[in-house]
Amino acid sequence: MENGRILRPDRASTMPLPKPLLLQRAYLLLIAVLVFVGCWVAPIDAPARAQVNDGLKRALTTFAAARALGAVVSVAQGTQVDATPGGVGVSFAPGQALKPLNELIEQFAAVMLAASVSFGIQLVLLSIGAHHLMSYLVCAVALAWIVWRWRRGSSPRWLQSALIGLLLVRFAVPLAAVANEGLYRVFMANDYQVALSGIEKSPTAVVDATQEAPVAQEGWRDRIERWLPKLPNLKATYDQILKSASDWAERIVKLIALFVLQTIVLPLVFLFAAWRLARAAIREPLRK
């Protein structure tokens, strides 16, 4: 009471905050908690790294199997029979029928090498995102964005863009790696094991089929006498390899599709989804 009048408290100081403002601040607190937990309390970098390492091992194993098959097919392709006394005689190379198969295997090995490089790049990006300095930077920029919006209701576009970019660097790659590996284990693991098993057994099949075609070191008369009775069987041997090659080609194409999906298509899809999610969470509608 002052001079006989009762002082009333300022109504503005006692009025509750508008509901939209309360929701906005609750949302900002939720973002702060999620960023802090993701950076320091429960980071997913370790499981993501383990799963990318698993993918790298699969790619390297498949690459080694492709190189082994390619080496054996190259040897079989180089099989040649020469019996040319005085420059006249018989000379033919039945293994040249395997040239298209050998070229397919070389391309397959190149794709597997590229897949291995892709997994290696993911490991490097995981190391960058998981560094403690990156976590400090993400938390600092997120705090600046939250304080700015808390006090003023909006934040500058450059701050929003910086936060979106840092969130992608910190969280997009590990989240994409975990989701990618999850899809592989659910939908692709069985197909991979079956196809790889067939590719790993293929070199043995080629060796078994061509072991009756030794490199001739005898004189031309002995070569002719030894090779002429075997020519029908030799042709049948390479026909058998070519017949089996259709099955190898199917498995090779399946493995190529699997690794292209896992190292190119799915990572790009997950990164795009992460960018859209971060943008939707941070961006503010343009004010008219």
| Largest sheet composition | 2 strands, antiparallel
Specify the number of helices. Answer: 8
State the domain count: 1
**How do the SSEs run, as a string of H and E?**
HHHEEHHHHH
SS class: mainly alpha
Account of the protein in words:
This protein has helices at 11-14, 19-41, 45-77, 99-130, 132-152, 157-210, 220-227, 231-282; strands at residues 81-83, 90-92. The two termini are 47 Å apart. The chain is 79% helix and 2% strand. It is mostly helical and 288 residues long. The chain is elongated and about 85 Å long. The chain has eight helices and two strands, in the order αααββααααα. The longest helix is centred in the middle third of the chain and has 54 residues, at 157-210. It has one domain. It has a two-stranded antiparallel sheet.
Q: Which key features would you list for this structure?
A:
mainly alpha, two-stranded antiparallel ribbon, elongated
Question: Could you provide a short overview of the structure?
Answer:
The chain is mainly α and 288 residues long. About 7% of the residues have low confidence.
List the topology elements.
Elements: H1 11-14, H2 19-41, H3 45-77, E1 81-83, E2 90-92, H4 99-130, H5 132-152, H6 157-210, H7 220-227, H8 231-282
Antiparallel strand pairs: 1-2
